[in-house]
Write a structure and sequence with these properties.
mainly alpha, 99 residues, 434 Repressor (Amino-terminal Domain), 6 helices
Length: 99
């Protein structure tokens, strides 16, 4: 049985992991030669600031955008979703992949 984690600790860990996810996403975007505006436009988003928020760890990539986002940054959708799951829900990631 997992040890209990205080909500505040879990929230701080979630914030840290979202920031790590954001840094990874930013690196992918830059490696693909895309600006935040380019990526937002290609994803059909109204505001490029949505990309900024995700890259700064404020938000998460919605599941309906994972596949097109992955394609735009040159990552297979499965690898993209798996990596994001490791950041966004590490307990589920561990249960599924035992890593």
């Amino acid at each position: 049985m997992a040890s209990p984690i205080h909500h505040a600790q879990a929230t701080e860990e979630a914030k840290r992991l979202r920031k790590e996810a954001g840094a990874w996403l930013k690196d992918l975007r830059k490696s693909a030669g895309l600006s935040q505006l380019d990526l937002a436009t290609r994803l059909g988003l109204k505001y490029y600031t949505f990309i900024s928020q995700i890259e700064n760890g404020i938000g998460r990539v919605p599941s309906n955008l994972m596949e097109p986002w992955a394609g735009l940054v040159g990552v297979t959708p499965a690898d993209f979703a798996k990596r994001l799951l490791s950041f966004y829900d590490p307990q589920t990631y561990r249960l599924l992949f035992d890593e």
